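Comment thread on ticket #2218

A.B. wrote:
> Attaching the input chain for the structure job we discussed in standup.
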Amino acid sequence: GDVSVYAMQVALYVLGYYTGELDGSYGSGSEAAVRNFQRKQKNVEVDGVMGPQTWPLMAAQARNREFVRSG
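C.D. wrote:
> Ran it. Output below, let me know if you need it in another format.
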């Protein structure tokens, strides 16, 4: 699978949006998880695409969640 898709899946998993296999493949489960994440954000288009608006928000939230868990 693709490393960037894998990183996205891990971030979505940490945030509770993705429950599928962490395989680096952008399938229907990944797209649904991205859409669900986007629906919870303000001023982000819900398109299922991990674009320049979505990725920074997701990455920051996942880092914060991991910090809270490990801290």
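A.B. wrote:
> Thanks. Noting for the ticket: Residues 54-70 form the longest helix (17 residues).
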